[in-house]
Amino acid sequence: NLFSAIPYIGQTLVEWAWGGFSVDNPTLTRFFTLHFLLPFVITSLALIHLTFLHESGSNNPLGITSNCDKIPFHPYFSLKDLLGFTAMLLLLTTLTLFSPNLLGDPENYTPANPLVTPPHIKPEW
């Protein structure tokens, strides 16, 4: 685990993240919750950022005057982003619905045989 590489507190962090002395049900529950909630947190922070940026506008901390023409974020950039998102979603949906096996592994079509080990699986010794 990457936490164990931290001096002095690494093992304590590992046990805290695992919820015990080994990977078990609390670990899986914690990481599932993290992976479920993190996209919502990131989306919320991005929307809060865009709201504050839209209300106050971007500032210039260096104090250098710029002679560029400014255009509002909405509707110009927000519609452009929405169009790009929709196009990529349409492309992904088309790929998924009309050729789902395009990116698949050919080994998925080999019939399973419990008596034969695949040749690429070998013991470490």
Strand-helix topology:
Layout: H1 10-18, H2 25-56, H3 73-98
Pfam family, one: Cytochrom_B_N_2
Subcellular location: Mitochondrion inner membrane
Transmembrane segments: 31-53, 82-103
What labels describe this entry?
single chain; about 120 residues; mainly alpha; 3 helices; about 0% strand; quinol-cytochrome-c reductase activity; oxidoreductase activity; Di-haem_cyt_TM
Can you walk me through this structure?
This protein is 54% helix and 0% strand. It is mostly helical. It has a domain at 2-58 and 72-96. The model has no long low-confidence stretch (mean pLDDT 87). InterPro entries: Cyt_b/b6_C, Cyt_b/b6_N, Cytb/b6-like_sf, Di-haem_cyt_TM. This is Cytochrome b. Residues 63-125 form the Cytochrome b/b6 C-terminal region profile domain. Keywords: Electron transport, Heme, Iron, Membrane, Metal-binding, Mitochondrion, Mitochondrion inner membrane, Respiratory chain, Transmembrane, Transmembrane helix, Transport, Ubiquinone.
What does the largest sheet look like? none
Helix and strand string, N-terminal first? HHH
Beginning-to-end CA distance, first to last residue? 24 Å
Task: Give the mean pLDDT.
Answer: 87
Helix share of residues? Answer: 40-55%
Q: Could you give the count of β-strands? A: 0
Which descriptor suits the 3D outline? flat
Class from secondary-structure proportions: mainly alpha
Residue stretches low in confidence (pLDDT < 50, at least 5 long) are none
Radius of gyration: 25 Å
Approximately what portion of the residues adopt beta-strand conformation? under 5%
Count of runs of 4 or more consecutive helical residues: 3
Domain Cytochrome b/b6 N-terminal region profile: 1-62
Domain Cytochrome b/b6 C-terminal region profile: 63-125
Main location: mitochondrion
Subcellular location: Mitochondrion inner membrane
